[in-house]
Amino acid sequence: MHINADGNQANGAAGIGVESKPFPVTGGDGVYETLVNPTASGYQFGGLYMTGILEDTAKSFSGNYVYLYFNSQGQVGAWINMTGTATQINYTTLSGVGACRLRIAKTGCNYSLSYLSPTAQVWVPLTSTSFAMSSTDMVVGLGNIIPPTNGYGGISDYSYFRVTPYAESGTWTSAALDRGGVPVQAGTISWQADNILAGVTSVSITTRTSPDKVNWSAWSGAYSNPLGSAITSPQARYIQVQAMLSTTDTARTPVLRSIRIDQPDFSGALLAKENVKFWDNPARSSPARILYELAQPASRVHVRISDANDRVLLDEPAPAGQGQNEFDWDIHDKANGVYLVKITAQDGGGNETSVVKGLAVLK
Predict the structure, then answer these.
(1) Neighbours of 117 (CB within 10 A)
(2) Does the pTM exceed 0.85?
(3) DSSP reduced 3-state for 31
(4) What is the distance between the alpha carbons of residues 292 and 325, in angstroms, rounded to a whole number?
(5) In a shared domain, residues 191 and 234
(6) Selection from 119, 83, 128, 81 nearest residue 100 by Cα
(7) Please, which pLDDT band fits residue 11 given cuts at 50, 70 and 90?
């Protein structure tokens, strides 16, 4: 199976999904591949691992393992543990490369490792011959097995995880998506999928909703129109999407490219998206003026501003009166870029409505 989407769960025979923690996928014979995107400076590692025993989610290994990695220094290499002692395969440095495709091919106890050359676009082996592990029963995952205590950074991002020959089925589940309030209209869901062959490959999309991310509705029936299907789950603040990919021919796979939810603005909501505006966008001088209109007095309003790396720069209370309000943000020391402004308003009954918009700073 092959999926190009970010999620927080990976289930099923294919182990479909992309996440920063390991997911328990039994690693049979096949070719395992991912695209690693280091997102921080220093030595941030990420890659594919296959291990005999996975102790916990901190990636503590007590059995044999192979770890093929790419890091933020442009180095691609591997660690292999066959005898109780980890051995590093000589790494190579790829100059000016921000992402790298990695591949582990497994046949029985034999493994071979390779990466895709960014210049020649051919697979380059890290070892001249394959090597043998003592067990064929392995667990596969994405992540960083090098402990942070060694001075190495966290886990890189991943664009996809793929295994071929393809598994017959697999399931991807999104994170709980916050719609900022209870919608008064259902909204629509659409998706883009490739390699769909009637009776052979398919992608099935369902949803469920929750008022609190604890109590969830049942999963909906499968939606039929990829160009836009009305969401049938009960109207609630949080929504999850599940994609089920399947094939009857393991030489073929469906590819899920994207999923989109279109939600109408909240008619009659305390804070509507169209009522949050910026005096200037991009903001060229300080202060940046953030304007918002409340349908009624709020019990409280909070403004949260974060940068592109999700670092919170400001989290403060704001005016909560009915009608037009203004919050001024001092940007004299802020770098040019795009910042996320989240305004959360709470009514007297404790119900919250949030709106998030991007504000560019260009001085």
Answers:
(1) 14
(2) no
(3) strand
(4) 5
(5) yes
(6) 119
(7) very low
Domain hosting 16: range is 2-166
User: Rounded CA gap, 221 and 71, in Å?
Assistant: 42
239 in the same domain as 285: no
Separation of alpha carbons 148 and 162, rounded Å: 27
Domain shared by 29 and 160, yes or no: yes
Residue 24 pLDDT class (50, 70, 90 cuts): very low
Q: Which of 24-33, 124-133, 273-282, 310-319 has the lowest mean pLDDT?
A: 24-33
Could you give the 3-state DSSP secondary structure of residue 9? Answer: strand
User: What's the N-to-C CA distance of the chain in angstroms?
Assistant: 46
Q: How confident is the model at residue 344 (pLDDT cuts 50, 70, 90)?
A: very high
Give the CB-side neighbour count of residue 40, counting CA atoms within 13 A.
Answer: 13
Structure tokens at 158: 């991943």
Tracing tokens 């292999």 back to the chain, one arrives at: 80
Assigned token pair, 328: 């001024």
Strands 201-210 and 157-164: unpaired
Among 324, 208, 206, CA closest to 275: 324
Q: Please check whether residues 32 and 160 belong to one and the same domain.
A: yes
